[in-house]
Structures are given as C-alpha cells and as structure tokens.
C-alpha cells in the first residue's frame, strides 16, 4: 500500500456565477521515502493539491488516504492531531515565531507531542547543528538571514521525525546559491530518515532535486515520471551544508 493515495480529487471554486476548476480528477500514489516534486506555473493547481493532501482545504470530490486512513473525512480536531503525529511543513515565508530563539522554534513540534523540555531542547540542538546553525541557536529570526531562517524551518519540520514533509515553494524568497544549500539540506534530511518529501515549486531547477516530478497544468497532470536527482548522497553520512551562514 502506498503511503499517500490521491483518488479522483477534484476542486471547484465558485466566484459569483462562474465555476473555476482548480483541480480536475487528480490521481497520485506516493510511496514512503519518496522525494516528489509537484511542478507547475502560477494557477496550475499545485498549491491547491498540496493543501488538500495536508488537510488545509477540502476537495469538492474524491479522497486522500494517508497510511491507510481516509483523511478527507477527518474533522478539524482529528486533522490537528494527525498533523502533529505525522506531518512537517516548510514554508516559503519561513513562518517562524519572531519572539522565540531558533531552539525554541525548532522544539515547538515536540512540545505539541508532549515531549519534556530537556529532551526537546536536546533534539532541537541536534537538528540545528545538522542544518549548519550550531552558532545561531540562541538567535531570533530578526537576527538571521533568509537562508538561516529557512534552515530553522527545515530543522523544525524534521525534528519530530514525521512520515511526510510538505515544502511549499521552500526557496521562493532565497537567492540561487542559498536555494541550492537549502535544497541539499532538506532532501538530505529526507533521505537520511527515509521520510516522504513533497515539494511544490514553479522552478524547474528546484524540481531537479526530486526523484519524481509531477507536472501540473490548468489543474491536470500533464506528466508524471522518475527523475535523476542532481544530488548524490552516497558519500554523505550527515546532511550538513558547509555554508552555515547562508
């Protein structure tokens, strides 16, 4: 059984008397540990698809099954609990708590899971070192560059060892060099822990980090196939980038 099954998903928005089809009968199966990119231009439906898979939007028709559970039928409370246990997020705008340090931001998912303070601090420190921020752990977001903030976001997404990490335009606010560093770290984390990573992007260069690319256009899948990732992790024991200050 696949980890994620998207079955006949359709999403229609109504604006006055007009019906706008954002997604039209999407079917996808994603395996545990797969690095999958959903690629498309603005308006292609890629973010809508991610939001439906993550329970942030309801489909008009169809269902999403994750780890055997029909999550489309979940209540908001059930979804909140499911996300805490199974899902991590990396956002384009970082979404860090501005008054909290890097350690406190990264430790937050563990707090929601009931992990005691000593252990969650230890895990947060470990993850921040893994993303090259060992010297920035007590810094707040306003004291860090965009690349450093996104590294904190990646550490936060992976700290609780979720089954799935959704990354929505994770390099959208970064320059090309920092984007490469961030992608190497994020994909490296997913490979290391055998976690499913779903990346949504409009950038073909970012898509090349994935093992599979699903191309959306006007709410439909126009291609779906394997990709030879530009990264090789055979000789990497730790997904750590040397550019810690990027």
What descriptors fit this protein?
single chain, 246 residues, alpha/beta, Rossmann fold, four-stranded antiparallel sheet, 7 helices, disordered C terminus
Distance between the termini: 40 Å
Element string (H = helix, E = strand): EEEHEEHEHHHEHEHEE
Share of helical residues: 25-40%
Name the average pLDDT.
92
Broad structural category:
alpha/beta
Strand order of the largest sheet: 6-7-8-3-9-10
CATH C-level name of the domain at 33-58 and 83-226: Alpha Beta
- Structure annotation, total helices: 7
According to CATH, the fold-level topology of the domain at 33-58 and 83-226 is: Rossmann fold
How would you characterize the largest beta sheet? 6 strands, mixed
Shape, per Cα inertia axes: globular
Structure report:
Helix content is 32%, strand content 27%. With 246 residues, the chain is of the alpha/beta class. The protein has a domain at 33-58 and 83-226: Rossmann fold. The strands form two sheets. A six-stranded mixed beta sheet has the order 6-7-8-3-9-10, with helices on both faces. Strands 2-1-4-5 form a four-stranded antiparallel beta sheet, covered by helices on one side. Helix 3 crosses helix 4 (117-130) and helix 4 (117-130) crosses helix 5 (146-158). The termini are far apart.
């Amino acid at each position: 059984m696949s980890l994620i099954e998207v079955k006949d998903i359709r999403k229609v928005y109504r604006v006055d008397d007009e019906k706008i089809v954002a997604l039209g009968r999407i079917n996808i199966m994603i395996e545990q540990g797969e690095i999958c990119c959903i690629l498309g231009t603005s308006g292609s439906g890629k973010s809508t698809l991610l939001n439906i898979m993550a329970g942030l939007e309801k489909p008009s028709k169809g269902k999403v099954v994750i780890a055997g559970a029909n999550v489309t039928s979940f209540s908001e409370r059930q979804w909140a609990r499911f996300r805490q246990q199974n899902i991590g997020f990396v956002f384009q705008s970082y979404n860090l708590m501005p008054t909290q340090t890097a350690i406190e931001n990264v430790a937050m998912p563990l707090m929601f899971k009931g992990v005691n303070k000593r252990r969650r601090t230890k895990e947060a420190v470990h993850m921040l070192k893994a993303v090259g921020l060992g010297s920035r752990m007590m810094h707040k977001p306003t004291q860090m560059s965009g690349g450093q903030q996104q590294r904190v976001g990646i550490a936060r997404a992976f700290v609780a060892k979720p089954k799935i990490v959704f990354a929505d335009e994770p390099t959208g606010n970064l320059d090309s060099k920092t984007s490469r560093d961030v992608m190497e770290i994020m994909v490296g984390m997913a490979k290391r822990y055998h976690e499913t990573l779903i990346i949504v992007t409009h950038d073909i260069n970012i898509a090349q980090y994935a093992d599979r690319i699903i191309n959306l256009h006007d709410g439909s899948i126009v291609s779906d196939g394997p990709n030879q990732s530009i990264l090789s992790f055979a000789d990497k024991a730790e997904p750590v980038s040397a550019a810690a200050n990027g």
